[in-house]
TrEMBL record:
It is an enzyme of class 3 (hydrolase). InterPro entries: HAD-like_sf, HAD-SF_hydro_IIIA, HAD_sf, PGPP1/Gep4. Gene3D superfamilies: HAD superfamily/HAD-like. It holds the Pfam family Hydrolase. This is HAD phosphatase, family IIIA. It comes from the Bacteria. Keywords: Hydrolase. The gene is yqeG. Its EC number is 3.1.3.-. One of its GO terms (molecular function) is phosphatidylglycerophosphatase activity.
Length: 176
């Protein structure tokens, strides 16, 4: 059961995931959580680092789609300045949102990767959907109230994961 929470990679930040590394691993599209993964949950403007990373993905022909549990109104407002497509009400930890985004792109399971900052939603949904995953550290140390509940349980899950899979460690990038 604990294996369902295991990320393929653990990278400190999305900004360190280069298009070249994605391509080397056969990844043609990135699906990403929104809050505390791409943008701080309380600051929808994004950072210069995010915009640079998104530009690099675009130049490499790698689409980025937000997969979020938030409402369409909330996600649309948050990604408006970033001009990103999205799947809202994705029902993570179920695979619905990931599968919807993947099929929208016409890609197979091994051609996409799900990026997120939570084991209990993002990594679990990626594993259920049969796609690779990248766990990133949250952009900021505060969360919405509902995410704080997940973070509490996540500590115990992470402890078990690291015990069972000692090779799991935070990396600078995919090839670290």
């Amino acid at each position: 059961m604990i294996a369902k929470f295991k990320p393929t990679w653990m990278v400190k930040t999305v900004y360190n995931i280069s298009p070249d590394q994605l391509k080397q691993h056969g990844i043609k599209a990135v699906l990403s959580d929104l809050d505390n993964t791409l943008i701080a949950w309380n600051n929808p403007n994004g950072t210069p680092e995010l915009r640079k990373w998104m530009s690099e993905l675009r130049q490499a022909g790698i689409p980025l789609i937000v997969v979020s549990n938030n409402s369409a109104h909330r996600v649309a407002k948050a990604v408006k300045q970033l001009d990103l497509p999205f799947v809202s009400r994705s029902l993570k930890p179920l695979s619905f949102g990931i599968t919807t985004a993947r099929k929208r792109l016409g890609l197979s399971q091994n051609e996409v990767v799900m990026v997120g900052d939570q084991l209990m939603t993002d990594m679990l949904s990626a594993n259920i959907a049969g796609v690779r995953s990248i766990l990133v550290q949250p952009l900021i140390n505060t969360d919405k109230w509902d995410t704080q509940i997940n973070r509490f349980f996540e500590k115990f899950v992470m402890k078990d994961l690291l015990k069972r899979y000692p090779e799991l460690r935070w990396q600078e990038d995919l090839d670290d």
